[in-house]
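Take a careful look at the sequence and tokenised backbone pasted below. I need to know what the token row says about the fold.
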Amino acid sequence: MLAVAADAPGAFERLVSTYESRVKGAVARSISDRSAVEDLAQEVFLRLYRARGRYQPTAKFETFLYRIIFNICVNHTQYMARRRALSIDVGFEDEERGPRLPADAASRRPLEHLAEAERAELVRGAIGRLPDKQRRALVMSRYEGLGYEDIGQVMSLSLQAVKSLLWRARDNVRKELMPILGEPGDLPDA
């Protein structure tokens, strides 16, 4: 990012190629509108480029990047909620999902794969029904690998508030899934 701020030739292109898949993944896990992922990911990089002159390496670059992703996803979610409230088509949501492939498809038996896919879908659904702040914090912690401090910086929350938010998120998912799945183990990847 420092090279981008210094307008080094090819620096922004290298930054985009390095982080493009992570940005798209983070956006896709944060919003329910699959058709907007590409556009929002481009908006993330546009804002990142515009912020190049203001960037200060006081924290990890990923924290800075996830703050931009977080803001764009929150804005998009709020915009879509207002739009749905005014729309005649209330209740119709985009259910398009990409294919979910196991790490090694040949190593799993079909029934085991089906059961795991069903569990993952239940977990994804439970996470998707969490309040926005809880869902975003859980996704950043569990699927993006951010630590409590980084999540706090991204969401402008204290360390204690992040811990509380994540506890409530995990508790809500556990309460929703316990009647369906029985005793909860570790959350399967969703």
The domain at 2-86 is CATH 1.10.1740.10 (Rna Polymerase Sigma Factor; Chain: A). The chain has two domains: 2-86, 109-181. The longest helix spans residues 61-86. The chain has a mean pLDDT of 78.
